[in-house]
Design a protein that fits this description.
Layout lengths: L2 E5 L8 H21 L2 H13 L19 E8 L5 E8 L4 H11 L4 E3 H10 L10 H15 L19 E6 L5 E7 L20 E3 L3 E7 L1 H7 L1 H10 L4 H16 L3 E7 L4 E5 L6 E5 L2 E3 L3 E3 L3
Parallel strand pairs: 3-4, 10-13
Antiparallel strand pairs: 1-5, 1-11, 2-3, 2-6, 5-6, 7-8, 8-9, 9-10, 11-12
Helix pairs in contact: 1-2, 2-3, 6-8, 7-8
Bound molecules: aspartic acid.
Aspartic acid binds next to strand 8.
């Protein structure tokens, strides 16, 4: 049994184009796994599909930071080998997860950040790309205008002024029971330049082991401070069901921080859970190459 489980983050639209984009990504992952048997390559294929899709806050279409440009975070972790790699706050490159994969496979390092990550990506042949779409630029300009005129800014930290677009993540299980996870994001709208979210924090926003694979989304600072991804891994290792552990993890994150977010998890038996305490959390599940319906658990906090 193989599983690809993909999310488009909390507060993102659940309308058809958003769900279809997630389904396409999960199917891309499955196709790549079938062709190559590589967990890392299959996750890269799934996440690249979403980084290329301007509907999500990852790669092209990422939210802009306070100073009007995009800095992306991306990470990848293999549960079988325990290998993890990430890039943080990287400007001018679209495929954060692919650069993270290169860090994992072609360097002795685990995380590259900022200008160093950008220079590494250029050395490896990644094209320069400001990742800015007209919609996100307008959103940022509107925020600046509102700020200048002294009006209160009402926006989602995850999706900006547009309540549609957000971070992406994928967890997977191959048919030999091995697990892996990957995530990519433009981070939070109007963040300070250099700010790093939970995506590249092992144990915070991502974790994979022989027990489960987890990705988190929402207010990154909250997931870092509560080590939520590792909390889920510990709970499943102790015999918990993914849904029960996912519920506990989101409730605990909320109780400690007052923030909202969501997570995806798959365990080595192929049991999955999507849990959040927000107003929406679009996901797509592909099992053995077929799109399946899945219940998304919304916790009232
Ligand atoms: N967790 C991401 C961050 O804080 C944002 C998100 O998931 O929406 O960078």
């Amino acid at each position: 049994m193989s599983v690809f489980f993909v999310h488009g983050s909390v507060e993102t639209s659940t309308e058809t184009p958003y769900i279809k984009g997630l389904e396409r990504a999960a199917l891309k992952g499955w196709e790549k796994l079938t062709a190559t048997e590589s967990r890392i390559d299959s996750l890269e294929a799934a996440i690249n599909e979403l980084e290329d899709n301007p509907l999500y806050n990852a790669g092209l279409g990422s939210v802009l930071n306070r100073d009007g440009y995009v800095e992306v975070d991306g990470s990848i972790m293999d549960g079988e080998t325990g290998k993890f790699a990430a890039v943080a706050s990287m400007p001018l490159i679209r495929h954060a997860v692919s650069v993270a994969k290169k860090v994992m496979l072609e360097t002795k390092h685990v995380v590259l950040a900022g200008e160093g990550a950008f220079l590494f990506a250029r050395e490896k042949g990644f094209p320069v790309d400001n990742c800015i779409t007209q919609e996100q630029l307008q959103s940022w300009q509107l925020a600046m205008d509102l700020q200048k005129s002294g009006q209160e800014l009402v926006f989602s930290p995850y999706t900006g002024l547009r309540k549609e677009t957000d971070t992406v993540g994928c967890v997977m299980l191959d048919d030999r029971g091995r697990l892996a996870a990957a995530s990519s994001t433009g981070g939070s709208f109007l963040k300070l330049p250099g700010r790093v979210g939970d995506t590249p924090f092992i144990g915070g926003g991502i974790f994979a082991s022989e027990h489960c694979a987890v990705v988190c989304t929402g207010r990154g600072e909250a997931f870092i401070q509560t080590l939520t991804a590792k909390f889920v891994d510990d709970g499943i290792q102790a015999g918990g069901h993914p849904e029960q552990v996912g519920r506990e993890a989101i409730r605990r994150m909320f109780e400690k921080t007052g923030e909202s977010g969501g997570l995806l998890v798959v365990d080595r038996h192929g049991r999955v859970a999507a849990v959040h305490n927000s107003d929406s959390f679009p996901v797509a599940l592909v099992v053995d190459g077929k799109v399946k319906q899945v219940e998304v658990v919304q916790i009232d906090t």
